[in-house]
Amino acid sequence: MNRKILMIAFLSVLTIGSSLRNVVKAQQQIVVGAEQHRPQFHFSPKEHWMNDPNGMVYYKGVYHLFYQYYPKGTVWGPMHWGHATTKDFFHWQEKPIALFPDSLGYIFSGSIVVDEQNTSGLGKNGKVPLVAIFTHHDPKLEAKKVNTFQNQSIAYSLDEGNTWEKYSGNPVLPNPGITDFRDPKVMWYEAGKKWIMTLATKDRITFYSSKNLKEWKKESEFGNDLGAHGGVWECPDLFPMEHNGKTVWVLLVSINPGGPNGGSATQYFTGNFDGSTFIPNSKAEKWLDYGTDNYAGVTWSNTGKRKVFIGWMNNWQYANQVPTKKWRGAATIARDLVLDQIAGDFYVRSVPVKEMNAYLKPVSKKQALTLNKEIDLSAYTKDLNGRIKLDFGFNTLNSMEIALSNKEGNKLLVGYDTKTKTYYIDRTNSGASDFEKGFAKKHTAPRIAKSESGKISLILDVASAELFADDGLTVMTDIFFPERPIDRIKISGAGKQKLTNLAISSIPSFK
Ligand code: FRU
């Protein structure tokens, strides 16, 4: 009898235990559920599809981000311009859709300028017009194989970017017969008192100029015989930067496919621009980011000498298949671009925007250690919900590896290999990857810095890793899809390197 009661009690404890576990599991699934893999401090739309950042403009204390958006689905479709604003690149406010497709087609990528002097005549009653210059992509002409299906058009806003009116004389730059004719990035060229449009035209860049944003004249072409050509050129950006008092022009060109680790990526050129022609000062191929997941990025306009960049944190190779449910696509962390010179050659470094510092919460004391055995940092990182910044300094950078994992056994490896002088991110066993054959891979990037010492920052936000090595000379952005966020971190290294700095910070959720 007693044994029977005991047995019943034991069994009910077991069932209660297992049903409790089921409840907990179900709750976790609800928490994770539709929001699994949601970045917590990067911009991503509440729902539906996004790709390229567009029309980034700073105006009256607000950074506007528009983006390629399909509000009816989570795969690419008829493109609109979504809209979000921020003052610090971390708190984002999603706004109503800014531009809808019309009889001229979908609204493809483009830029926005502040037409301070009302050169366009679109301003009224003393209101400064913000003018958007974008590509109209006509799917009907495309289907008919008429090669003039992409044309440049404009729209304007008289209420600081909140609402937009398309110009009645569109398109302002009709297609001369080039199948890929898109993604205008416009800037004011003060020395010539004119606007310059940098346009991706298939396998090259074409520069146009205008006095009023409505009539455009071809200036020159660049790049059909230079740089990477594994795919079509897209989403360019042209701007001056300074280094030791010298002005150097930087030309960003996204390319798809043909990136250094497959699929889409962004290359750049440095040189001189005289208002008409861009002359590169080096033939070397340079990449703004060697990872697979920073595409179509450009800089904000109207920010003076500061150049802030944001990219689409994805790759056309698998963008339509990544395993998120309510939304697809996110932006990279905003980055300050800095011009640098190494062994006589100019490079563009990318560093997380300085606004980030205000949100970092140190969870470890800054310390110096010898890296002669594996160091387990999990005590610091186990409760951070996958929102982590790691900063390491090395007296002499030698082979080293940071292993990031969770109890599910998902593992992301980030490291440096002295033999090949390459940094790497290996996402082979980092979580879900069956949505695309080429996803589970190791990606590499050359070390550009020439110094013995090394510096590495790594930013994790649930489903992304952004590696800034040597103060952003070598950058790698990779997305990955662990079953639950990373909470265990270990670092190991060869050859008794000294870690001159080790700092771990948590980053809040802005959701
Ligand atoms: C780049 C791109 C652009 C185009 C847009 C369409 O990712 O292909 O060239 O304007 O996306 O959504």
TrEMBL record:
Membrane-spanning intervals of the chain: none
UniProt entry keywords in alphabetical sequence: Glycosidase, Hydrolase, Signal
UniProt xrefs under InterPro entries: ConA-like_dom_sf, Glyco_hydro_32, Glyco_hydro_32_AS, Glyco_hydro_32_C, Glyco_hydro_32_N, Glyco_hydro_beta-prop_sf
Every Glycosyl hydrolase family 32 C-terminal domain range: 368-504
UniProt keyword Amino-acid biosynthesis, yes or no: no
Gene Ontology annotations of biological process type: sucrose catabolic process
Signal sequence interval, chain numbering: 1-21
Family listed: Belongs to the glycosyl hydrolase 32 family.
Name this protein carries in UniProt: Glycoside hydrolase family 32 protein
